[in-house]
Each structure stands twice: as structure tokens, then as C-alpha cells.
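Following up on my earlier thread - several people asked me to post the actual chain instead of describing it. Fair enough. Here it is, all 403 residues.
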Amino acid sequence: MRRQLSISLLLIGTCFFLFEGKQANAKTFYVAANGNNANPGTQAKPYKDWQKLSEVLQAGDTAFIRGGTYIGTPKSSPVYCHFLNLKGNIKDSIYILAYPGEFPVLDLSGNEVQYPNPTAIILENCYFVHIAGLRITGLKQISSGNGISRGLELRNSSNNLLENLEIDHLGGYGFIIGENSNHNLFKNCDAHHLSDPFTRGGAWGNANGFQCTGGTRATGNTFYGCRAWWISDDGFDLYGVDGEFSFINCWSFWNGYKPGTFTAAGDGVGFKLGPQSKNYQYSNTLNRTLRFCIAAGNRGAGYDQNNGDFRYAFLNNISQSNGSYGFMFDYVHPARKQQFSGNHSISDKFPKRGTETDGLNNSWDAGFKEKLIPIDIHSLRAKRQSNGDLPPVKFKPANNSLK
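Reply from S.P.:
Thanks for posting it. Predicted structure:
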């Protein structure tokens, strides 16, 4: 059985190409927790707040954020850091990076949430921006239940690279792709321990790790090496969106539970993949591609079509120990012919549903003879490698139960 995966960069090479430029007169700025926004932003006299960078960065510039804890305080709006109108280009990107070897954290746990839908970071009207190495944590949900919090949201922002970012212990969503945000790459990002315990009429059922939902017009976005776990609703959620999305080597596990426990909460789908069929007319466009992904130990289905009446390609994915179907594809009739090859269901409540999952060398196909070895789900949450890549997957666990 194949696993640790080598993925051809050719699949996402376009995105990497966008971030190679560096103009000769580019400037470098610095931010530090003990800085001052009245400073010139040099290494010796850094700025204090991440937000300050939105005022100074131009195409080709680089900002280094030093390690330490930043608390952030919203003033007249519920946004802690609003990167607005940062416009790099195909030759000269804008870089907002953790200082090499250091770990900046935006910790909002000490802030009282007074707005219905506060957001830690918004990228709005931003293009060709590379953000890497930052962590967002602690933003609570408003106690009235009238809204939920957000980690990092893209609004009208395209061709950006979000790399090695971590969002955890928030009262709501992790990463959000908003309206007209296209061709962004999320590389080696983690979302975990997200929940919405106070939501009126639907507690625990709205927090998702990575999402683009509600009819948003976004397309061409790629998730590579990303993980979502212990989220009260779904790991990855594309419900109601028609655009083209790719998932490569992404893991979604232990979702649908109250974080840190196996107490039932929201839907708990690993990868929720489709809109209502009434919103989309079937065509030959390939709208969802999943390669080398893992959905394991989720309360609901591993991979769910959700009435998405369009073309899918499922290549070499694993579903294991999920509480419902491993691969749920039985919403569209007559069933479409899809591309399913090399997918495995291991110890799911039900391996699959629907003839759209028929293909070549899947574990449920007639004549399949390969011996399936279970994954140690606990190994999926191990520390990432030093370069940010996913940890090695372990097999033959001593205890691989959900509880």
C-alpha cells in the first residue's frame, strides 16, 4: 500500500512560479512584539502591529515578523488585522513572512469578543501576496451566539500563497475563501480545535477548518499538504460553490466532535464537496480533484458529494474509520461516470454508496486483491517536518478506535 507521498510540483507549479520575482529597489520591513508603529520599520526599530504593514508594502517588498506573542486590539471594527489593497504582480510579489527560525503568534484569547463575527486577519483586494509561518489562536465566539469568529478570510483576493499557517482554538471558522478569490494556493496549513458552542439553533454545527460556501464565486483554488482536525463541524467544506478546487495530500480527521473529545457535535464530514444540484448544470469541466488525501475517524462521511452534479477525479485517496460512508456519491440520478482510481476504504461504517464511485483498483471494486493496512490516525496530528511538510504516516496502530 502506497503512502508517504511524492507529489509532482508540476501540478501546482503555476502558483510557485508567481512568487519568484524580486525587484531591485524592493524594501524590507520588520515587525516585533516590542516595536512601535511610529518607528521606521527597520530591523533595529521595528513596527509593533501586523496591521501597520498594510500601509507600507508595495510590489516586491518583504516584511519579516519576529517571533513572540501579539495580542491585537480592534478599534472601530471587528477586524484585528486588515491587509487591504496589497498588490504585487506576476513579476514582483509581496512577502509577509515569519522571521527565519522564529514563530510569531497572534493570540487573541485575552480579548473580550463584543462583535458578532470578529475576524483575526482579512486579505481584501490583495494579489500576489505570500504569507508564511504565522499562527492565529484564541479568538472566542461571542457568548450571545449571535455570530461566530473567523481566522483568516480572503475577499476579492487572488493569486496568493498562504503557507505554513496555523489556526487553532477559535470559536468558528479557520480559513475562508470569499467572493471572487481565485487561484490561491494553501500550502502546508493547519486548522484544528475549532468550534461554535453558542450558535443559536445549531450549536457546534458551523465551525469548519477550510471553507468556501454559500454560493461564493471562487475558482481555481488549491489545497496542498493541509490538515483539519478536531473541528466541531467539517474539515473541508465547499457546500454551495460551483468553482474548480483541487486537494492534494490533504488530511481531515476527527471532525464532528467537540474538540479534544469524541463527544458528538456537528456533521463531521472530512471533505464536503458539492453544491445543491439545482445550482449547477453538469458539463465536462473537472470541478473537484482529490489526490493522495486521507479522511479518517470523522463522525460523518469521509468524502461527500453533497448533490454536486459535476465531474470529480478521485485518485489514490484513503477513507478510514469514518462513522458513515467512506465515499458518499448517491445524490445524482442518473449517475454520472466519474474518475475513481486507487481509492481505499478501511474500516468505515460503509465503504461507499453510489455507482459514481466505480472505477479502477478501488478497494470495493470486483477483483481487488491488495492487502489494506490501517493507518494510525494518531500519527496524522504529529508535528510537521522541519520544512513544513506533513509528518510520516504510521501504520498498524495498537489502538485505532475512535474512542
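The longest strand covers residues 149-155. That should answer part of your original question.
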